[in-house]
Design goal:
Blueprint: E1 2-11, E2 18-29, E3 34-40, E4 45-46, H1 49-59, E5 67-74, E6 86-98, E7 101-114, E8 117-127, E9 146-155
Length: 160
């Protein structure tokens, strides 16, 4: 598990690219392939303070929806040896909740096992409309309808 994972989102638009990073992601993977990620939405850092304010207040309404989460399973866990160093392709299925809306998703990613740690890597896109994130028409040239999400988390063995 980790409490210091990294999620980045990127929006490419004609007027301006928007990128934000969050290094306070909680992630857990167990030996059965169950996987979960939780992110506090206000923990995303932006290049410009105005972008961060708009993200929190106008688009994601982070006071009302403070977290985003993914809960699912590595469906090909039998092909992933979490105890042996190596790089393993992973097929993930589960439920992604953003802005209070939950959608089933299937994604591919990579799990790298190195020195007892498990590194999860994935990159995928979501449509803002699927999560009822509304972009005012006067901002439509600044924000893409599709946002790229990159997940990069290094998980250490859990000890009590």
């Amino acid at each position: 598990m980790t409490r210091a994972g990294h999620i980045k989102f990127f929006s490419a638009a004609p007027m301006e690219n928007i990128e934000a990073h969050n290094h306070q992601v909680t992630a857990v993977v167990d030996a059965n392939g169950e996987i979960a990620f939780k992110v506090i939405m206000k923990s995303f850092d932006f290049e410009k303070a105005a972008m961060q304010e708009h993200f929190n207040k106008q688009y994601l309404h982070t006071d009302k929806y403070p977290e985003a989460k993914f809960e699912g399973k590595i469906t090909n866990i039998s092909s992933v040896n979490l105890k042996k160093d190596g790089s393993y392709p992973a097929q993930i299925e589960g439920k992604l909740t953003i802005h209070g809306i939950t959608k089933n998703i299937e994604q591919r990613g990579t799990i790298v096992v190195k020195g007892g740690n498990v590194v999860t890597n994935a990159k995928f896109s979501i449509k803002l409309a699927d999560y009822e994130v509304k972009v005012p028409s006067d901002f439509s040239k600044k924000i893409s309808e599709t946002v790229e999400i990159t997940v990069d988390c290094t998980l250490a063995p859990y000890t009590r």
